[in-house]
Design brief:
69% helix; mainly alpha; 534 residues; 23 helices
Length: 534
């Protein structure tokens, strides 16, 4: 008689789509259960997540017993990521680690994202021009806030108390973060990464501190990141095979992301360049050539443009609100950085030596200095956000310092991989293929894919830097504005690991082992810092 293990092994765990769908459903169910049963900070989240980790250990045992396959390793990483993120959101409330959110029932005028959600909940309509201009966050496209309002309405209609229903909004952001992780996995697979070169970047994305913070943040950041990463996946799929369904998926993802937050449109220049290159390289004007591409571009525009800029167009046509309207802090703000010389915004790393690895803002958080160096702020805020409480607990400071050092190693490997990616893509010669071209062919990294990733990475960093100078304030440097760079960096790291695997020299083997160890330690420190020691 066959036992239960045999029945379990018949399930399609080697299928990434099945594993992702199962875990995404678990993310919604787990987040909802935590909001209904437990208050933030209670013992229930710990017990629930212990149960999930026990389940992960069981899956690991089953994996080893049934044979180690790629799909099973991916399933294990997804399950562990879900458990860690769920533990984090169940241990904090929706008033902790938020950005421009305020809280529900705010006694004064609620300018935050909760006020925006409450507006839809109470009025069931879009705000008019006066309401947009008089409430700081109402300028945002409303997709996320409408979804949250509908989710709250559904829960209260089912008899769930409003306080618990509001906490359950983190179930949505947890769901978004898991969809984002699945999109990253599909991108890594699509580019031909295999074995450790797939598992290390995926683990890095699964346990990165930024995604812990996004999982618990109820503003529109996580939804926009999800759509942005889905758009990257859709674009790479279209570059592989230029079909109408794939360009429609790209239009829906890019337009949907801009309907959640306009900054997702930063991906558009890279998309446009690849559209143009593909059009130029395609021969003939018939329906099997450029004519077919032009029809696809028309479909893309017909779907993406209304979704992406419909909100700004409506506000401009009805209320003459400029499409670029953005309420911002003034020069009188304690966060103002406009008085710092230009060179210090890029090259002043002295604060790392003098004040440690945590971001800091004088006046806002009572810290000893202003964080003003943009590259240093990226490194710090990618790990700790823009929050100033980390040094209040010695364990945070110790683990955080170690995590920062590991981050430097991982970022260095990613930048080296970016160089390999560029060489592999652009040294291709038809007459005499280079080693880089052969490496690219074996790993599915086409010239078009590499160019798109490099352009997307560069345009996002350029836009971020311009934003930091146009609005020179501490909060403008937050890493949440450039989260998709995590995917690009993970891809570049995977490319480097793949390349090192083909080398047999002792330095190559050492560097490869060092990067694997750094990623493993980074993930362990991140999990210790957020879900458990938070």
């Amino acid at each position: 008689m066959r036992g239960p293990l045999h029945a379990v092994q018949k399930l399609p765990f080697s299928n990434g789509a099945f594993c992702a769908a199962l875990l995404l459903l678990l993310s919604l169910a787990g987040g909802m259960l935590g909001g209904l049963v437990a208050e933030p900070g209670s013992l229930f989240p710990f017990l629930l997540c212990c149960a999930l980790f026990v389940g992960a250990v069981c899956v690991m045992w089953w994996t080893l017993y049934g044979g180690l396959t790629e799909g099973r390793v991916v399933a294990l990483l997804f399950l562990l990521a879900l458990a860690a993120r769920l533990c984090y959101i169940l241990l904090i409330s929706i008033r902790v680690n938020q950005h421009d959110v305020y809280y529900f029932g705010y006694p004064a005028v609620n300018h935050g994202h909760t006020g925006y959600i409450e507006f839809f909940l109470e009025n069931g309509r879009l705000p008019d021009g006066g309401e947009i201009l008089s409430h700081a966050q109402f300028y945002h496209p409303p997709l996320h806030h409408i979804v949250c309002a509908l989710f709250l309405r559904l829960q209260t209609a089912l008899g769930i108390p409003f306080a618990a229903a509001a906490e359950n909004l983190q179930a949505l952001t947890l769901f978004y973060s898991m969809v984002a992780l699945y999109a990253c996995y599909r991108v890594l697979k699509l580019l031909g990464l295999r074995g450790g070169a797939l598992f290390a970047p995926l683990a890095l994305l699964a346990f990165h501190p930024t995604f812990f913070l996004l999982s618990g943040s109820i503003n529109n950041d996580c939804l926009s990141v999800m759509f942005g990463l889905l758009a990257v996946w859709a674009m790479l799929e279209w570059l592989k095979k230029t079909t109408f369904p794939r360009i429609l998926a790209l239009a829906l993802c890019l337009g949907g992301g801009m309907a959640a937050k306009l900054s997702v449109g930063v991906l558009a220049p890279a998309v446009a360049v690849l559209f143009l290159i593909r059009l130029v390289r395609t021969k003939g004007w018939g329906m099997d050539g450029r004519g077919r591409l032009l029809l696809q571009f028309c479909l893309f525009g017909a779907v993406c443009i209304p979704l992406g800029i419909g909100w700004q167009a409506r506000n401009f046509l009805l209320y003459e609100i400029p499409p670029s309207y953005l309420p911002h802090l003034t020069e009188q703000s304690k966060q103002y950085l406009g008085n710092y010389p230009l060179w210090t915004r890029f090259f002043d790393f002295g604060t790392l030596r003098d004040f440690g690895v945590f971001p800091s803002c004088t006046g806002e958080y009572g810290a000893a200095y202003f964080e003003h160096c943009i590259p240093l702020a990226i490194l710090k805020m990618s790990l700790f956000g823009e929050y100033g409480y980390w040094t209040q607990v010695s364990a945070f400071e110790t683990i955080g310092t170690f995590l920062f050092g590991l981050n430097l190693l991982v970022v260095g490997g990613s930048l080296a991989g970016m160089g390999v990616c560029a060489v592999s893509a652009f040294r291709t010669r038809r007459s005499s293929p280079s080693p880089g071209a052969e490496f690219a062919r074996r790993n599915g990294l086409s010239r078009s894919s590499a160019l798109f990733l490099l352009l997307a990475w560069a345009s996002l960093l350029f836009s971020y830097t311009a934003f930091c100078f146009k609005y020179p304030h501490f909060c403008s440097m937050d890493f949440r504005y450039i989260v998709p760079t995590l995917l690009y960096g993970a891809v570049f790291l995977g490319v480097l690991l793949s390349r090192l695997k083909t080398r047999t020299t002792r330095p190559s083997r050492f560097l490869r082992a060092l990067l694997y160890a750094a990623v493993a330690a980074f993930c362990a420190c991140s999990v210790l810092l957020y879900p458990f020691f938070f």
